[in-house]
Design brief:
alpha+beta; four-stranded antiparallel sheet
Length: 430
């Protein structure tokens, strides 16, 4: 019976073709995400699945004409603001986190209050935001596909004056996520927003990789090439939207699988984007630390991608250990990370200088939380084993990892933050 009900709902969704924003793909993406949900979540949505896939995901685009639903795309922090640009073009990571946290909290709260219609509308706004932030036409900061890329890729006469925004995002796509299983992103709105921010940042970077192929396809009149590149972006978007919808329904229904919650107990901070990478790449101002063009790297160190190796003490002996996860940087380096309030209890890492490259270095490591020093380690010299960092994060929402030269000329300061982790208390994991 459940399969029959959902099948009827899905056919009704597919029969309706209203689409705007990303172009046709807005609804295509949301419907593809809905199709991946477990049966119990589809049953929970029931009659709201059709409008979520066909109308609610368009609410932020239609706030001026859809007065009945515009409140589901407005924020208490901006009373009276009907059209919020940030729901279409991403802001800073901190601003984006607050947007995601706000609408996740609204959707979850409405579901827990038995207001499924409101919950689905807030979920539609979240879907729209994620889809726009992961759209190729919205992925390049400061351009929005109107002028800049015409300087990199000179257009033919037919595109000389035409904005590229619309052609890049418009179309209809057949998105099939196959057996994709949506991920639980958190056991609270704060935690879910943190992980969802990371997921949509991945979608933005993925979308950027499709921009040039799409433009080249447009210039060449190759609609198949355009659609293929659009599909790569839209497919990733659909997976992110599926994760968000799954998380909303799990938290709203207060049904969380223990294994899924356990998988969220730690976070590899080296996989996160520091706040200094406002537009998901490090600014040139971060490149002026020795011993190399010292922008931080993950999983390796230096411009040649040298594996992360530290001398560490194990069982009373100093041994050289290679780490898969970590951040390699020079001095001075400041990396700032957003930490969701009340989610993680500790930050841990092993810090030191690269076992071969850093033998002549001397570095001071410091961890700061909300502008307050949590721990200072060093000076650590290149001929000494790594030190262990383990600090409490009570009240910390802004975490900084700082490396400074401690007397050397910096040429040997190949500093490593190995296995940097945000860690929950075990008893806080459901």
């Amino acid at each position: 019976m459940r399969a029959v009900v959902w099948g009827a709902i899905l056919l009704a969704v597919l029969a309706q073709t209203s689409a705007r924003g990303w172009g046709g793909p807005h609804c295509d993406i949301t419907r593809a995400a809905l199709a991946t949900l477990p049966d119990w979540e589809k049953q929970l949505l029931r009659d709201e699945a059709v409008p979520l896939g066909n109308r609610y995901c368009l609410i932020p685009d239609e706030v001026h004409k859809d007065k009945a639903n515009r409140k589901f795309a407005m924020m208490d922090s901006q009373p009276g603001a009907v059209y919020l640009v940030i729901l279409h073009l991403p802001g800073t990571p901190t601003e984006n986190y607050e947007v995601l946290r706000y609408f996740l909290d609204k959707a979850i709260g409405a579901l827990r209050a038995g207001q499924m219609g409101d919950a689905a509308r807030f979920a539609g706004t979240i879907a729209h935001v994620l889809e726009d932030w992961g759209c190729p036409a919205h992925s390049v900061p400061g351009d929005n596909m109107f002028t800049l890329f015409k300087q990199f890729l000179l257009p033919p006469p037919s595109y000389r004056y035409a904005p590229l925004h619309g052609p890049i995002e418009n179309g209809r796509l057949d998105i099939d996520l196959g057996n994709y299983s949506p991920r639980l992103l958190g056991v609270s709105a704060d935690e879910a927003a943190f992980h969802l921010l990371h997921r949509v940042q991945q979608a933005t970077v993925n979308a950027r990789a499709q921009v040039v192929p799409i433009i080249q396809g447009l210039y060449a009149g190759d609609s198949n090439a355009v659609a293929a590149a659009q599909l790569k972006a839209a497919t990733f978007d659909a997976m992110v939207v599926a994760d968000a919808l799954h998380t909303i329904l799990c938290l709203g229904a207060q049904t969380i699988e223990p294994r899924a919650a356990e998988s969220l107990r730690t976070v590899d901070l080296s996989a996160q984007n520091p706040l200094e990478a406002v537009n998901l790449f490090m600014p040139q101002t971060a490149f002026f630390s020795k011993p190399y063009w010292g922008h931080p790297t993950t999983g390796v160190i230096g411009t040649n991608g040298v594996p992360l190796r530290l001398n560490v003490t194990e069982h009373g002996h100093v041994v050289t250990k290679q780490f898969a996860d970590g951040i390699g940087t020079g001095t001075r380096s400041v990396l700032t990370y957003l930490v969701p309030e009340g989610v993680y209890s500790r930050f841990t890492a092993q810090v030191g200088l690269h076992a071969e490259l850093g033998t002549h270095g001397c570095v001071l490591f410091e961890v700061m939380g909300n502008g307050r020093s949590l721990v200072k380690l060093g000076p650590i010299r290149g001929d000494k084993p790594a030190a262990t960092v383990d600090v409490a994060l009570a009240g910390v929402t802004n975490l900084q990892l700082i490396t400074s030269s401690a007397g050397s000329d910096g040429s040997g300061n190949y500093a490593i933050w190995a296995e940097p982790r945000l860690v929950k208390d075990t008893h806080n994991t459901p």
